[in-house]
Amino acid sequence: MEILIVSPSASVPNGNSHTANRWASELSALGHKLRISAGADEGPADLLIALHAEKSHEALAHFRRNHGKVPAVVTLTGTDLYPELSPTSLASLEMADRIVILQGKALARIPGDYRSKTRIIHLSAPPRPSLREKNDAKDDFTVCVVSHLRIVKDPMRTAQAARLLPPGSRLRVLHAGAILEEKFDEEVEREERENPRYQWLGSLEQDDAGQLIASSDLLALTSSQEGGGCVLSEAIAADTPIVATRNDATTSLLGDDYPGLFTFGETGALTALLHRCESDPSFCTQLLEAARLHLEECSAAREQENWSNFLAELFPIPSAG
Q: Cα–Cα distance between 112 and 125 in angstroms, integer?
């Protein structure tokens, strides 16, 4: 089967392009031919998977006009769902044969008429051995932030929290991500100048970002909302402890009672978590044990099984006779 994945940000290393590449790999492993396009595509296809209901709307409409009843799937991303679905996104859902969400709590954001055709497919990350050294064998405690710089990600929160740590702290913040909103040009420059605990690494390729997560002592995710939390899956796969804002994606993937959650925007609460993680190795172990409960749900094997079942639903094998 030929499957077309439309991802408007296909050429930009971000969560959606990561998802597109990951799914292309998973579906190829199931024996299908894959291609990824940033927009409308004139080639043949037996199935369309459109990432981002709003940004892929024109490509979806074009596909519908040119491919008749060929199944089309729309995947809802974080900016589709939060703060609310736009009229354009709702029009895409109307055209879709199926809707995919990346975490269970997103279902509550979807109008009731569309929930019966909605399925959950959790994102996975390939197993990646931890590259962390023992804390007592190195000079610092590294916290990675893997996030492009835009307001919804609150990307400078970890750097601000690190400023409030005790003078003896060895913590360093390594921040990977592209500046997507120009207001952050000056903020990054000032933070690097004034905060010796902060280093901006710029945009990294997907594998390099994964290596950063695997080699860090802690991952900090500070977004107000997430569609599926790719970096959470990467951290779980690499056995890297996580501290994160409490939102639908983090509570759906890590649990409402996960001990590493804090309220969005609360710098002091994040500082307290960072200090506890650095000074209390047993707390990091507690975070890892809590996250490992969700390892199977975020595994590549489970994701491939979900896709296999999903395709069987869309393309049922006719019964004999």
A: 31
Q: Is residue 130 domain-resident?
A: no
Contact 241, 288 (CB under 8 A): yes
E strand or H helix at 5: strand 2-6
**pLDDT at position 223, please?**
93
Residue 68 pLDDT: 82
Q: Are 212 and 142 in contact (CB under 8 A)?
A: no
The CATH number of whichever domain residue 29 belongs to comes to 3.40.50.2000
Q: Are residues 91 and 163 in the same domain?
A: no
pLDDT at 107: 92
Which residue, among 96, 115, 116, 97, has the nearest Cα to 107 in the 3D structure? 115
Residue 118 maps to a domain: yes
Cα-based angle 109, 224, 216 (whole degrees, multiple of 5)? 125
DSSP state of 103: S
The token pair that represents 164 in the structure block: 């409030």
Structure tokens at 313: 């639903």
Q: Which residues contact 298 (CB under 8 A, 6 or more apart)?
A: 122, 123, 124, 125, 232, 233, 236, 237, 253
Average pLDDT per consecutive 10 residues, the chain (321 residues; last block may be shorter): 86 71 88 91 92 94 91 92 91 96 91 95 76 64 95 96 97 96 95 97 90 96 84 89 94 92 97 98 96 77 88 82 51
pLDDT confidence of residue 8: 86
Residue 319 near residue 279 (C-beta atoms within 8 A): no
Range of the structural domain that residue 241 is part of: 135-292
Tell me whether strands 261-262 and 118-120 are parallel, antiparallel or unpaired. Answer: unpaired
